[in-house]
Amino acid sequence: MFRNGRGDVAERPQRIAGRRRAPRLAAAAKAGDGRGPPAAPEVDIGALKDFIGFNLRLAQEVSFRAFARRTGLKHLRPGRFAALMVLRDNPNVTPGALGRAIARDKSSVTPLLQGLQRAGLIRRKRSTVDRRSVTLTLTAAGQRVLRDLIIHARDHDRDFDAIAGNDKARFVRILQQIADDFG
């Protein structure tokens, strides 16, 4: 059991007979107590349960959803927080450099930046060094939004600290190694 972003107590994904249930199916199966829809059949994810990449993806998706719930911004998209953090620490960075820093290619960083600009959180301006290029900075509104998100991110990360315990530094090093070796 752990506390989610709203302070509610929730269960971690279940393991049944050594097999991990898909998170949504675990919730649906519990709902079969007459208070919700009938229990969904369990799905065996088979060998996927032992693939690091699959488990990274599940953990990432769950983390993104939990962070969005915690902030109250249901439509908070992955990458926005990371982009705002990098822009705070690197004013006048180019879109390409930002994309590399947050592991996004041009096809995904462009719509991300367009959304941040439409929301009034970032400003694009012509580079003073290379007039063919643009640089990015946070607006005052972007700085305010980021300050709020950082508070939520620290709380969110403490939930992970509770799971990782004394192994956090080692776990982070492994994740960084995966990113470095496959990036």
Short description:
The protein has 183 residues and is mainly alpha-helical. It has 2 domains: 1-50, no CATH class; 51-183, Winged helix-like DNA-binding domain superfamily/Winged helix DNA-binding domain (Arc Repressor Mutant, subunit A). The protein is built from 7 helices and 6 strands; from the N terminus they run ββββαααααββαα.
Please describe what this structure looks like:
There is one protein chain. This protein has helices at about 25-30, 50-70, 80-90, 95-100, 105-120, 140-165, 170-180; strands at about 1-5, 10, 15, 20, 120-125, 135-140. About 55% of the residues lie in helices and about 10% in strands. The protein has a two-stranded antiparallel sheet. By secondary structure, the protein is mainly alpha-helical. Mean pLDDT is about 85; it is low at about 1-20.
What is the helical fraction, as a range of percent? 40-55%
Poorly predicted runs are 1-19
Query: What composes the largest sheet?
Result: 2 strands, antiparallel
Strand content: 5-15%
Mean pLDDT: 84
Count of structural domains: 2
Q: Span from first to last CA? A: 34 Å
Question: SS-based structural class?
Answer: mainly alpha
Cα shape: globular
CATH class of the largest domain: Mainly Alpha
Order of SSEs, N→C?
Answer: EEEEHHHHHEEHH
Cross-sheet strand order for the largest sheet: 1-2
Radius of gyration: 20 Å
Number of separate strands? 6
Q: Specify the number of helices.
A: 7
The CATH fourth-level homologous superfamily of the largest domain: Winged helix-like DNA-binding domain superfamily/Winged helix DNA-binding domain
